[in-house]
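for the writeup, i need someone to sanity check this before i put it in the appendix. the sequnce is what the collaborator sent (i think, or maybe the updated version? ugh). structure was predicted straight from it, no edits. if anything looks off just tell me and ill rerun, i have time this weekend
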Amino acid sequence: MHTDYFDIRQVRQIPNGIEPMQNSSRRTLTRTLIPLATRAGARIMQIYATDFTVTEKADASPVTQADQAAEDIILAGLRAVAPSIPVVSEEAAGRGEKMVAGSSFFLVDPLDGTREFINRNGEFTVNIGLIENGMPTLGVIYAPALDRKSGV
């Protein structure tokens, strides 16, 4: 089957003892993650302006250096601001890395819409979410080609 996404059900969840955040902490984290997504988006746009190469993941879905560059920026930023919270990332899963997450984890798609990126139609986003006890509790979405941001 050819997909553009990974199945979160394939992530092995283990209790990690991290208590859900208070709303004020989520707001503070959101204000930190928006600039992080913006930096990843800026790098994506630098690559978008070049003759980038396209390769395939194990599931035959496309991947570019923009996917990896954005993931590198986001993972480094998440390690700096919330080192105790595990990260589940589409690109790491696409490389076959085993994803293990606790009751709280970040869910990252550094370049959602790789096909749209390749087709240069501007319809792609940077996505960073926080999952707590199986529920999304925080999300940041940035559309770098449109310079539109949303954080909830």
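The CA atoms of residues 129 and 142 lie 12 Å apart. The chain is about 35% helix and 30% strand.
thx in advance!!
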